[in-house]
Amino acid sequence: MKDLPVHSGNPADGFEQQTDAFFGYSVAISGDYAIVGAFGKDVSSKANQGTAYIFIRNGNSAWTQQAILTASDGDSGDEFGFSVGISGDYAIVGAPGKRIAGSKVREGKAYIFFRSGASWTQQAMLTAADGSAGDEVSCSVAIFGNYAILGASKKDVGGNADQGKAYIFVRSGTTWSQQAALTASDGAAQDFFGFSVAISGNYAMVGAYGKTVNGNTIQGKAYIFLRSGIFWSQQAMLTASNGATNDLFGNGVAISDDYAVVGAPGKDVAGGYLDVGAAYVFVRSGTTWSEQAILTASDGKAGRFGTGVAISGDYVCIGAENIGGNRAYVFGRSGMTWSQIAILAASNNVPSDKFGSGVGISGNHILVGDVLKDGLGANVGAVYFFAR
Fold it and tell me: Domains in the chain, please, with CATH?
């Protein structure tokens, strides 16, 4: 695959001069459009308000910045851009640090943007109907067609602190309204359900990396939900066949048609190698989801492989954000077999980077974030596009 680096920001807004903007922490791609979050970006005098950037593809390799997105009610500490998603003419940006109604610190909010021609405008602001301080609603977001999902991994449920919850919103015309609030049937304290979310067609997926499984703390679990009309119900609970303590299974999730992928960046391997990481592919048959493959890096250099996961058709991209290695891996499916077909690395990689912190895939194009890339300041961030 060809490395097509994108300029890490727009000099006109002073982006490159800012330390700790963290451009590239969150990324998403859909067709000819991509979105990149910079949750540490200062806006005017408001520290860490955050910004998101839209890029458009012209031809096979030319990506240019089309828009800079900010929240209409942006304020210091919002962390707008901590999570992003895009689908067709709609983009969603999460701001988990957003203060709501004055006293609800870090309740969180998400913003929907709509494209008309070359212009992107804010269409809606999404908040949880039962939101409260510390929930961090929109720590993860995803969008598909008329539906959006927001994760709130620090939401207390009943007496369970940080059990987590996810919220489904649906669009009617220009109005977005909450349709469902999702929780795990076996939810418990510190599950962090909602740390990662994904949505495709009638299916939604939620990761809970903190879930204790068979006595293994922080092994993690992921959940599949199915929509029937206006109702969403839990269809499956996914766990790794070789799960163990501290795997962080569910740290990242992605879903496309009948396939789902779950990252487990804390997975250890034989020989005492810690946090090498793995990713798991699941396939649906009727109402049953079963593990089809366990993905690992062929070169053995991955660390926290599975931090970022993305799927599009028969291809999966897995980010491995280990400092010093900095790679992403592409796998392709033939029948029931998944095999590694490419290793992606930045053309200007240095050991202190974090290439692979976020990944996105759409058709023949892949986007990889490098949140710790230095520019004229430290940790400015960068993104790289790859074409097949």
Answer: 21-345 (2.130.10.130)
